[in-house]
Specification:
This protein has 17 helices and 13 strands. The chain is α+β, with helices and mostly antiparallel strands. Helix 2 packs across helix 3 and helix 13 crosses helix 15. It starts with 19 loop residues before the first strand and ends in a 10-residue tail after the last helix.
């Protein structure tokens, strides 16, 4: 009576279909997704390399400061929301954590070294599986909590219990489209709203068109983030679910395109391209999830190109890597040169600073010349040879070391006597000049040690 005989504002007995925005050849989708997957692995490794050289400090309340997130975004050459996604993904995968020191900083974990030793497809599957099941939601970073405090990356209050279920459901809706089809985002959101109707004023605003709450509930926002994050990670390619992504959620084989579908009979009025989304499934068991992740890795592996053992050196002090490089080559080249651009091919630039970095790491000029000659498909350009030789000639002219105290004496014979005395070995003495010795012992211990072996030193201030 109070509802005037209506149980619903708008009767919707049939679920709204998820519409296809565009259709691509499945091979193109898989190849695009594989390229994104490789880029994802490179980005995570670049993040860990950046933080391994002095990771950002942990805020008192936990998490990453706004300034450090900006620095990370600049280092990765991505927008801040995307940087927050990669940081949270690496954290969720167990690759970074607080170092636990008094001055807490984020750093790579031992699990990162183990992860790097896995084949590329398995590394990706670990990241993708982590993302699919994570309750932490990087999309809310930069927003406000109930106490009007800014939500920071790696900080508290980023968990949203609905996130795993929404991600899985969004991918399942994509799996119901014909193979190679990307969805219309609005139709995905409409389907989710039909499956889980909203209550309260937000629903009213959607139906009346008033306010700014349209598609702004948490589930809709997570769904939109899922579509963009899946593309970043390589679960989708050109918006369509790729074969490894389909395996990741344990979805059945994709529906065939309309031209290949079997006739349904004269009495069936449904179009043959009708969306066939499987019903929402119960959460998979850990064993099922592990099997799905392994299958996804197996499907992705042949899509990855074989790692290369060479680069193409250019006369403008750059090197072009036309594909992913073997681990050892990538590690050494990453020290010897700076990444200038990424994409289908990676461009490295050699500078005086990057060559000096390689020399600081223990390489000699001869080592660098031999390395480049061994791994370049083109002759080593003269400008690069000159650069290495010039930097090596100037490298190490100034030496820096540690010393706790010194001994100064105008009579260098006395210092010779001290160095020759075996009892002075514990003081860690070494000669810096004819009349100066440096010691590893502190000044008080040095005074006491010299007096113990028969000398009479006097202390002096700096």
């Amino acid at each position: 009576h109070l509802r005037a005989g209506r149980a619903h504002r708008t009767p919707e007995p049939v679920p709204p279909p998820v519409e296809a925005a565009a259709t691509h050849r499945p091979q193109v989708v898989d190849a695009t997704a594989a390229g994104q997957a490789l880029a994802a692995l490179a980005t995570v490794e670049e993040l860990l390399k950046e933080w391994d050289e002095g990771g950002p400090a942990v805020l008192r309340a936990g998490g990453l400061s706004v300034r450090d997130l900006k620095r990370t975004a600049v280092a990765l050459d991505v927008p801040e929301p995307v940087a927050a996604f990669w940081v949270e993904l690496a954290y969720g995968a167990g690759l970074i954590a607080s170092d636990g020191e008094a001055d807490e900083r984020y750093a790579a974990t031992p699990a990162y070294d183990e992860w790097r030793e896995l084949p590329p497809a398995e590394r990706w599957a670990h990241l993708a599986g982590t993302w699919l099941t994570a309750t932490r939601t990087p999309g809310v970073v930069g927003g406000r909590d109930a106490k009007d405090r800014t939500l920071s990356a790696l900080g508290p209050n980023l968990d949203r219990s609905a996130a795993p279920e929404v991600r899985h459901r969004v991918l399942a809706l994509l799996a119901g489209l014909p193979e190679g089809a990307s969805p219309v985002e609005a139709s995905v959101l409409a389907r989710l709203r039909w499956e889980r109707p909203l209550r309260g004023p937000q629903r009213e605003q959607r139906e009346t068109g008033t306010g700014d709450a349209r598609d702004d509930d948490l589930r809709s926002r997570i769904a939109r983030w899922t579509l963009s994050e899946a593309e970043l990670l390589g679960v989708t390619g050109r918006g369509a679910l790729a074969a490894p992504g389909r395996a990741l959620i344990g979805a059945p084989e994709a529906p065939r395109p309309a031209a290949e579908a079997e006739p349904r009979g004269p009495g069936d009025k449904l179009p043959v391209h009708h969306h066939r989304t499987p019903p929402a499934a119960t959460p998979p068991t850990p064993a099922e999830r592990a099997a799905a992740t392994a299958t996804a890795a197996r499907l992705l592996a042949p899509l990855f190109p074989e790692p290369l053992d060479h680069v193409l050196l250019q006369a403008d002090l750059t090197a072009v890597a036309p594909g992913p490089l073997e681990r050892e080559l990538a590690d050494v080249l990453g020290v010897l040169a700076d990444v200038e651009s990424k994409g289908g091919a990676t461009v490295y630039r050699f500078t005086a600073g990057s060559v000096r970095r390689a020399l600081d790491a223990g390489q000699s000029a001869a080592d660098l010349h031999a390395f480049l000659a061994r791994h370049s498909r083109t002759p080593v350009p003269q400008p690069l040879t000159y650069l290495i030789d010039d930097v090596a000639r100037r490298h190490g002219r100034l030496r820096v070391g540690a010393a706790s105290a010194y001994v100064r004496c105008d009579d260098d014979a006395t210092l010779d006597e001290i160095l020759a005395d075996k009892r002075a070995a514990a003081l860690g003495l070494r000669r810096l000049a004819p009349t100066v010795l440096a010691a590893q012992a502190d000044p008080a211990a040095l005074l006491e040690g010299l007096r113990a072996i028969g000398f009479a030193p006097a202390a002096e201030s700096a």
